[in-house]
């Protein structure tokens, strides 16, 4: 099942730690890997960091990082503050390990999202965070002790990655196991809304939207019977995503609208209705997915949509030119001038069409950038953001901030700093990005020193 | 001996409990000079200030200084209670934008507008306008250090007395701040060009803008050194930004930063080819600009606040919009234009002379004499 | 595409399940409803007294389902059938009302403004159990329905998941999932005349309950017993305009 590797091209495992070996959150998870693989542990203070570590875990100083052949390395990053240091190295595989969301400070929270977005796969210890992330990207694993088989898949993912093999085929298998575990729990203990809702989410992620819908409605009924005040927006609303992915857009919009109680939600429902009536089907589907936080699917669809819209505009312009040639009359000099009104009409129509496409395209692009950012895919997002000059002052600041972050993750530190400075020149509070970089540097220092990222 | 009491939020360094030292800003220097004027008139100055910690009584250069405790956020009440205790003619030297109930027969000083930025909320600006209207009603006279506040007050407030708002720009000691001797003027240049930015490093004083301008200038001019001659406060966002930029800069050796004492500042000007005052907002009469001009250093300044009172573009310096491109362009072309630099140096010095401190002292004496004469006998 | 919630021009449809109501209040009820609602939908649970004919006499009854065999013993099926039938007529709002329930005049006057809005999707009213006459209602330990609210009006949202609990008795008149939607508890009043008849009427009901549910699985034994209370606390009704 798993591809084998020969010893000679066995890649290296480099761990960017969150704490010394004795204190890391992940020692139970790393020990089985350490039993089979030599591990390089990034630290400038091996005495402190590696006290009590197995013998084949050896130190790698930050000074030596530049000398490593990263094309043959699997990096396990145990703390998000390493993101700007590791991503530019472009290791062959990058696994982001995270406990979840609780109890972290703002710096960690910001970078956790970005690291999770840019990594090859994510390993988390928390199920709620696992599900949240699964709506933002593929290749997420959970190791939470809830089920033996599920944990086994997680540990296998770690071992495959250590061996240099992309663990993504295991992701779906783990998911199937977890869905089955919920099914078992429900049949043992009887129906309850929490388990049914989780099961519904798993079925959705596995692509069984019909099954997901059935389970969801059951969860909804139980939630109402229990008097759960979030039965409507917390549970029923998800139906709109399920219907949207089945292509039942009218029903999906209705399902969303039923849950729209605040002025903002009503305005969204109104917009969805309007766009549906205008025939903007793909955009409506994407908006519904985003309203249900499925940014992964939304971004995938939006990338296709933006490409499509770009080709469509080009195609129509071509057609229009051909028609002009047919309508026009050449004078002696070979200069073409078209029969007045026909050409005017065509220009107007072109103008209207291209305005419509421009609006679609601009909306689709904005949503694409936003969904990519919500998924932490900073570098992909920055590629889609429009030219600087066309943006408003506020947008230009956001543009520079985004570009700066992308540059940082590509290892272009100085250019990143300049982007942040340009953002700050336009808006004073953008200086936070520079302070954040300082804090990040300090955190990496502490981590490399065998400490923890923040001064707890 | 008649007393003139000066009320201020800051004078001696109560924050660091250094009662024998002034807190190092423009306001404190201003008050110090004003005390000198009052002494010279044979009157007795007393400074009442807010104390960060416990109340205190001390003396600085022969002037009694009384520190009053206050409740954080209750500045108006603090000034009112200081006014109760103070004797003689009262001069409210700061915080005029607070809704203070001023004692009748008093003078106020406004050191410039510091809310002149697009990002300051309308509600804040409205609140400030309301406070100033009250101040203009209640005070006999407001001394404004720049024409911008004078215009603002005239345009926002109602008042009968046309002399109510008096323009009294800040000054420079032209005997202290002098140009270097012209002896080495015509000799071939021995060193590369040197641009000085004589301000504390802060956002409103334009440090970010200047860093971006420096990017272009340092890249195109291999022999240029840019010196940020001002304080950089540890632990601030600005310090983070500056250090990140400086440390990653390929030409980091041509970027200098240090804080100077007032004496050393004169030497810094002496070595500079151009002084840049890149203020974004909040500038009264810029002392730095006056000092640079007084030292004969050609200036490139932004069109903000009181800088507009000092610099006439093309005559005694360059005056440009507050963005990095405009500043870089101006510095670049000025570095290429020695005759223009000479012209700015000469006219800059002339400008500074008309702001000499002797005139300032004389004006204040007149104001205080007039005010004392107009008050009823005790 | 129309908004799910209309703030005006709502079609109001009354839905009612009946069984042998002829000779009681049915005619008066349908007469009142004909003045108040736009359409009426009825499911007749195998009546043997000509109730369906009486229903047919009212033109606003747009659907009448006549069951051959009674579904009374599987109440959730009956409720679901009534619901589905009513929904098939494309109503905007539904009024779930029984043949022995009457709206107070003030309620009738205010009914339209209750439904012609787009803020909430159900309304619950105060229901009063009249006891032994049409002039007094009962208010004591076991008879205090009017101190709570009874959901009687719902907006029909196409596509929404409406469900009844699969019970045989005491199934709520409206799908329980409605309560997840925003709703209003109104002070408008409804009169229930089911207990307004004479003592023998009430005794007959008592006997029926004891026969169907002797152990109080679906209802409360003490409440059943209280039907026979010789001196219940009665309050005079004052009709509000």
UniProtKB/TrEMBL annotation, chain A:
Residues 316-347 are annotated as: Disordered. It comes from the Bacteria. This is Uncharacterized protein. It comes from Paenibacillus terricola.
TrEMBL record, chain B:
It comes from the Bacteria. InterPro entries: Glyco_trans_1. CDD domains: GT4_PimA-like. Residues 186-350 form the Glycosyl transferase family domain. Gene3D superfamilies: Glycogen Phosphorylase B. Pfam families: Glycos_transf_1 (PF00534). SUPFAM superfamilies: UDP-Glycosyltransferase/glycogen phosphorylase (SSF53756). This is Glycosyltransferase family 4 protein.
UniProtKB/TrEMBL annotation, chain C:
It comes from the Bacteria. Residues 17-152 form the Glycosyltransferase 2-like domain. InterPro entries: Glyco_trans_2-like (IPR001173), Nucleotide-diphossugar_trans (IPR029044). Pfam families: Glycos_transf_2 (PF00535). This is Glycosyltransferase family 2 protein. It comes from Paenibacillus terricola.
């Amino acid at each position: 099942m798993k591809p084998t590797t020969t010893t000679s091209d066995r890649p290296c495992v480099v761990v960017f730690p969150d704490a010394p070996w004795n204190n890391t959150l992940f020692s139970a998870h790393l020990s089985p890997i350490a039993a089979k693989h030599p591990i390089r542990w990034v630290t400038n203070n091996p005495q402190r960091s590696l006290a009590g570590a197995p013998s084949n875990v050896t130190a790698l100083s930050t000074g030596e990082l530049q000398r490593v052949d990263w094309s043959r390395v699997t990096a396990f990053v145990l703390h998000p503050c390493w993101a700007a240091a590791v991503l530019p190295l472009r290791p062959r595989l990058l696994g982001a390990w995270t406990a979840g969301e609780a109890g972290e400070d703002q710096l960690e929270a910001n970078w956790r999202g970005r690291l999770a977005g840019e990594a090859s796969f994510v390993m988390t210890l928390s199920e709620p965070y696992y599900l949240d992330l699964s709506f933002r990207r593929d290749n997420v694993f959970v190791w939470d002790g809830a089920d033996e088989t599920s944990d086994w898949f997680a540990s296998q993912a770690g071992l495959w990655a250590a061996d240099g093999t992309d663990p993504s085929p295991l992701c779906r298998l783990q998911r199937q196991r977890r869905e089955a575990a919920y099914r078992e729990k429900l049949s043992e203990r009887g129906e309850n809304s929490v388990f049914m809702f989780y099961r519904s989410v798993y079925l959705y992620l596995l692509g069984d939207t019909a099954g997901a819908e059935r389970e969801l409605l059951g969860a909804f009924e139980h939630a109402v019977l229990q008097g759960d005040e979030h039965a409507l927006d917390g549970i029923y609303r998800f139906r709109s995503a399920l219907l949207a992915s089945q292509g039942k857009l009218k029903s999906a919009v209705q399902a969303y609208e039923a849950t729209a109680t605040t002025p903002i939600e009503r305005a969204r429902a109104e917009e969805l209705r309007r766009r549906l009536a205008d025939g903007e089907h793909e955009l409506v589907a994407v908006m519904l997915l985003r309203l249900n936080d499925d940014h992964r699917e939304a971004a995938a669809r939006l990338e296709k949509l933006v490409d499509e819209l770009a080709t469509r505009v080009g195609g129509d312009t071509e057609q229009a030119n051909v028609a002009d040639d047919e309508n026009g009359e050449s004078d002696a000099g070979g200069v073409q001038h078209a029969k007045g009104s026909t050409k005017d009409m065509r220009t107007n129509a072109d103008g209207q069409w291209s305005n419509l496409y421009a609006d679609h395209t601009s909306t689709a692009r904005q949503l694409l950038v936003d969904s990519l950012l919500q998924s932490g895919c900073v570098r992909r997002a920055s590629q889609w953001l429009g030219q600087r000059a066309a943006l408003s002052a506020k947008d230009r600041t956001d543009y520079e901030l985004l570009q700066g972050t992308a540059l940082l993750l590509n290892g272009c530190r100085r250019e990143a700093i300049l982007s942040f400075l340009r953002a700050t020149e336009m808006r004073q509070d953008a200086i936070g990005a520079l302070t954040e970089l300082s804090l990040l540097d300090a955190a990496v220092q502490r981590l490399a020193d065998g400490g923890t990222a923040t001064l707890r | 001996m008649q007393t003139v009491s000066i009320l201020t939020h800051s004078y001696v360094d109560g924050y660091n409990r250094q009662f024998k030292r002034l807190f190092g800003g423009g306001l404190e220097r201003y008050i110090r000079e004003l005390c000198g004027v009052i002494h010279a008139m044979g009157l007795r100055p007393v400074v009442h200030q807010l104390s960060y910690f416990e109340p205190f009584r001390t003396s600085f250069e022969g002037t009694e200084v009384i520190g009053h405790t206050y409740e954080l956020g209750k500045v108006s009440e603090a000034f009112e209670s200081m006014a109760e205790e103070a004797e003689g003619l009262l001069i409210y030297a700061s915080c005029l934008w607070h809704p203070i109930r001023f004692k009748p027969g008093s003078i106020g000083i406004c050191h410039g507008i510091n809310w002149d930025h697009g990002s300051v909320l309308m509600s804040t600006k409205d609140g400030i306008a309301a406070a100033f209207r009250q101040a203009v009603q209640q005070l006999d006279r407001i001394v404004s250090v720049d024409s911008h506040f004078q215009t603002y007050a005239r345009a926002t407030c109602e008042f009968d007395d046309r002399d109510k708002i008096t323009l009294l720009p800040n000054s420079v000691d032209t005997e202290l701040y002098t140009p270097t001797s012209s002896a080495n003027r015509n000799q071939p240049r021995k060193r590369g060009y040197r641009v000085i930015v004589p301000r504390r490093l802060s956002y409103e004083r334009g440090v970010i803008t200047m860093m971006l301008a420096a990017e272009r200038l340092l890249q195109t001019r291999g022999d240029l050194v840019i010196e940020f001659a001002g304080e950089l406060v540890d632990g601030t966002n600005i310090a983070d930004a500056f250090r990140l930029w400086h440390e990653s800069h390929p030409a980091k050796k041509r970027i200098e930063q240090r804080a100077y004492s007032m004496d050393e500042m004169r030497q810094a000007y002496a070595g500079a080819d151009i002084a840049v005052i890149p203020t974004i907002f909040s500038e009264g009469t810029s002392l730095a600009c006056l000092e640079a001009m007084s030292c004969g250093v050609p200036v490139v300044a932004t069109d903000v606040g009181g800088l507009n009172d000092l610099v006439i573009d093309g005559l005694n310096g360059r005056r440009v919009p507050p963005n990095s491109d405009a500043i870089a362009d101006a510095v670049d072309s000025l570095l290429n234009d020695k005759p223009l630099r000479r012209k700015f140096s000469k006219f800059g010095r002339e400008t500074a002379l008309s702001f000499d401190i002797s005139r300032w002292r004389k004006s204040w004496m007149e104001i205080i004499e007039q005010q004392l004469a107009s008050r009823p006998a005790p | 595409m129309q908004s799910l919630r209309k703030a005006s021009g709502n079609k109001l449809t009354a839905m009612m399940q009946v069984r042998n109501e002829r000779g009681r209040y049915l005619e008066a009820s349908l007469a009142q409803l004909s003045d108040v609602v736009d359409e009426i939908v009825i499911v007749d649970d195998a009546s043997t007294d000509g109730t369906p004919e009486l229903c047919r006499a009212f033109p606003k009854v747009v659907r009448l389902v006549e069951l051959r065999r009674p579904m009374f013993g599987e109440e959730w099926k009956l409720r679901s059938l009534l619901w589905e039938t009513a929904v098939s007529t494309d109503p905007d709002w539904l009024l779930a009302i029984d043949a022995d329930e009457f709206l107070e005049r003030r309620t009738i006057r205010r009914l339209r403004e209750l439904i012609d809005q787009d803020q909430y999707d159900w309304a619950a009213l105060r229901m009063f159990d009249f006891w032994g006459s049409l002039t007094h209602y009962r208010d004591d330990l076991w008879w205090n329905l009017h101190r709570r609210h009874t959901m009687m009006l719902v907006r029909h949202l196409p596509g929404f998941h409406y469900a009844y609990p699969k019970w045989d008795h005491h199934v709520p008149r409206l799908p329980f999932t409605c309560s997840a939607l925003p709703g209003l508890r109104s002070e408008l009043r409804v009169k229930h005349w089911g207990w307004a008849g004479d003592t023998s009427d009430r005794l007959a009901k008592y006997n029926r309950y004891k026969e169907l549910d002797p152990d109080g699985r679906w209802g409360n034994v003490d409440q059943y017993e209280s039907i026979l209370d010789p001196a219940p606390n009665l309050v005079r009704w004052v009709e509000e305009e």
